[in-house]
Amino acid sequence: MSETRTTGTALIPEDVVKLIRPDIMAMEPYTPVVPFEVLGEQLGRPPDEIIKLNANENPYGPSPRALEALAALNGAASIYPDPEARRLRALLADYVGVDAACIMVGAGSDELILLLASLFLAPGDAIIDCPPTFSMYPFNAAIAGARVVNVPRHPDFSLDVEGIERAARESGARLIFLCSPNNPDGGVIAPADLDRLLALPLIVVVDEAYHEFSSAESVAPRVPDTPNLIVLRTFSKWAGLAGLRVGYGIIPPPIIEHLWKIKQPYNVNVAADVAARATLKDLPRMQANVRKIVAERERLLRELSAISFLEPYPSQANFVLCRVTGIEAATLRQWLEDEGILIRYYNKPGLRDHVRITAGTPAQTDALLAALRRIEAKTG
Ligand SMILES: Cc1ncc(COP(=O)(O)O)c(C=O)c1O
Questions:
Q1: Protein residue closest via CA to atom 3 of ligand 1
Q2: Is residue 15 part of a domain?
Q3: Distance CA 182, CA 346 (A)
Q4: pTM for the whole thing?
């Protein structure tokens, strides 16, 4: 018989759970991505045989200089990082063209989204979300206990600016997140739309996670002179550092001062810090990789429009969204997965007949197109 241990507590598990915030108890759990190795096991393939076009990662990986800097970390790993990431922020100031005093680095831009939600939103406050878009905005707003006021995009994925203006007046929302280029369609915000939204009495966060793949101008240089504009960027996509978690915000001085107060002191680890700095010193190579990805995105767009059941949308990011006609998008995702090719399917209103495909290497595109043509032969 097993020994019963006395913990000295009068609480039973049901009592403990009652101490959790009721709004978090009621929240739907987040579905995290399945790690690569686990997927390999599930698909019965070694991970290096899987073509991963589902998370907008960079197929060319990190800069070799970043890898060298990581290998040379040695003793630095036992010392806490600089809480202000001073050296990285100085390099970012040159890269973005804004003063380092306006820059904060985070453990991925995801961390900065959570920090902004914590700074601006108390329970019951509202944010405006414009779906379909990146799901971390309503997710982090919910953690802050905020209400999410949805103003869906038009069928062409452009913003419903009148709808946002109305929602801002009616809800008193304090924050709006706008993704440009938008995930999942890859469209950018029209400058005139942004100007109208900046005239509203709320904070406008423009998430430029995919900016490097776009021909649109960044709005980051406007931040120092626009008190309600914040721009988010990341090293996860163009710089191939998704696994190290490093993103940054360009934030007007009156706001950043308060954001520093709530940031975890050692949020950016030393590995992320050295790798990001080495990447910024290897720009010509990394920009050449970005150009290869953009060329592949354009090739994808052309070739996918020739597949009878796909209608791709033009994109300024490193992915192409497609409407799927004639077959179920979920089935298409499954058929490709059976061939070791992963694409993104959305089981969400407005997107159930869509898939998003990351631009990979030319060889990955070849394999994808061959698989799609086999499916076309099978279904046509
Ligand atoms: C629009 C957008 N913003 C932010 C992120 C997250 O970036 P990070 O890896 O820096 O947290 C992603 C990642 O998919 C994204 O699509």
A1: 209
A2: no
A3: 15
A4: 0.95
User: What is the count of structural domains for the chain?
Assistant: 2
The enclosing domain of 154 has a CATH number of 3.40.640.10
Q: Is residue 86 part of a domain?
A: yes
Q: Are residues 269 and 206 in the same domain?
A: yes
Mutate to test the pocket of ligand 1, among 136, 177, 316, 346 (most ligand atoms within 8 A of CB): 136
CATH assignment of the domain containing 339: 3.90.1150.10
- For a pocket test of ligand 1, which of 52, 53, 54, 109 has the largest count of ligand atoms closer than 8 A to its C-beta? 109
Atom of ligand 1 nearest to the CA of 247: 10
Residue 205 alpha carbon to ligand 1 centre in Å: 13
267 plus 316 within the same structural domain:
no
Report the nearest atom of ligand 1 relative to the CA of 236.
Answer: 9
- Measured by CA distance, the residue closest to atom 7 of ligand 1 is 109
Q: Which domain covers residue 259, as residue numbers?
A: 64-282
- Alpha-helix runs per DSSP H in 5-156: 13-18, 22-25, 36-43, 64-71, 86-96, 108-120, 136-143
Ligand 1 mean position, distance from CA 239 (Å): 13
Q: Which residue puts its alpha carbon closest to atom 8 of ligand 1?
A: 108
- Judge contact between 278 and 63, C-beta under 8 A: yes
Q: 41 and 86: one domain?
A: no
Nearest ligand 1 atom to the CA of 234 is 10
Tell me: do 212 and 320 sit in the same domain. Answer: no
- Angle (CA) 124-130-213 rounded to 5° is 130
**b/e string for 307-341 if b means 16 or more Cβ within 10 A?**
bebbebbebbbbbbbbebeebebeebbebbbebbb
Q: Can you give the pLDDT of all 380 residues of the chain as single tens digits? A: 444 455 677 888 888 899 999 988 988 887 777 887 888 888 888 888 999 999 999 999 999 999 999 999 988 999 999 999 999 999 999 999 999 999 999 999 999 999 999 999 999 999 999 999 999 999 999 999 999 999 999 999 999 999 999 999 999 999 999 999 999 999 999 999 999 999 999 999 999 999 999 999 999 999 999 999 999 999 999 999 999 999 999 999 999 999 999 999 999 999 999 999 999 999 999 999 999 999 999 999 999 999 999 999 999 999 999 999 999 999 999 999 999 999 999 888 889 999 999 999 999 999 999 999 999 998 87
CA–CA distance, 272 with 296 (Å, rounded to integer): 28
Please give all residues whose beta carbon lies within 6 A of any atom in ligand 1, as ranges. Answer: 56, 108-110, 134, 179, 183, 207, 209, 234, 236, 242, 247
Q: Which amino acid is at 372?
A: L
